[in-house]
Write a structure and sequence with these properties.
Number of strands of chain B: 11
Shape of chain A: globular
Helix content of chain B: under 10%
Distance between the termini of chain B: 36 Å
Structural class of chain A: mainly beta
Strand content of chain A: over 45%
Distance between the termini of chain A: 41 Å
Largest sheet of chain B: 7 strands, mixed
Largest sheet of chain A: 6 strands, mixed
Order of helices and strands of chain B: EEEEEEEEEEE
Oligomer: heterodimer
Number of strands of chain A: 12
Radius of gyration of chain A: 14 Å
Chain lengths: ~110, ~110
């Protein structure tokens, strides 16, 4: 079945540091890929997405590129801020009639001033 | 921007009691979902609902769980006889015809079973 493996946390960075959170996936067919973010005490917010190979999703300075050859969708940001502290989830969405999301375990990011 | 609304935000219930978690999806959406997140763990799929019936359910979604769309606007998750291990954050989500591009989650209901 489908699965998502993402970098174990927690990740602690200083403000303005470079961020990478690795994500790889296993899926049949051609899934869509997503990064969701969960701020403390809040729900899941879509951060960015990519629906086909070589697509780059971007939002709020975060980027991720859909790499079919390496089955990866790593999240990057050039300069993190304290307000980026949250849990980040990589997810894939299978096609078919149900559009079920499969999530990774989440990576807690803490950014210190 | 349209939102998925969940109520209540937090519910405490005694073991063995029935609970109903409520969701108001985005009005023109067609696909509806429940996911749950046990504290500190990953988000897990429970059930998808389309065209007034369950389209897929996970092995977590056993006979104690049921879903309904009673009036065309609400989407509910009922847990018949709660167990301690049902304590989790429950997220409702809805998606339109382009659900392949993702869908919108509510802010969740934190269920605590004591």
């Amino acid at each position: 079945g489908d699965s998502v493996t993402q970098m174990e946390g927690p990740v602690t960075l200083s403000e303005e540091a470079f961020l990478t959170i690795n994500c790889t996936y296993t899926a049949t067919g051609y899934p869509s890929l997503f990064w969701y973010v969960q701020y403390p005490g809040e729900g899941l917010q879509l951060l960015l997405k990519a629906t086909k190979a070589d697509d780059k999703g971007s939002n709020k300075g975060f980027e991720a590129t859909y790499r079919k050859e390496t089955t990866s969708f790593h999240l990057e940001k050039g300069s993190v801020q304290v307000s980026d502290s949250a849990v980040y989830f990589c997810a894939l969405l299978s096609g078919g009639s149900n559009y079920k999301l499969t999530f990774g375990k989440g990576t807690l990011l803490t950014v210190n001033p | 921007e349209p939102e998925v609304t969940q109520t209540p935000s937090h519910q405490v219930t005694q073991m063995g009691q029935e609970v109903i978690l409520r969701c108001v999806p985005i009005s023109n959406h067609l696909y509806f979902y429940w996911y749950r997140q046990i504290l500190g763990q990953k988000v897990e799929f429970l059930v998808s609902f389309y065209n007034n019936e369950i389209s897929e359910k996970s092995e977590i979604f056993d006979d104690q769980f049921s879903v309904e769309r009673p009036d065309g606007s609400n989407f509910t998750l009922k847990i018949r006889s709660t167990k301690l291990e049902d304590s989790a954050m429950y997220f409702c989500a809805s998606g339109g015809v382009s659900s392949y591009y993702g869908y919108t989650f509510g802010s969740g209901t934190r269920l605590t079973v004591v």
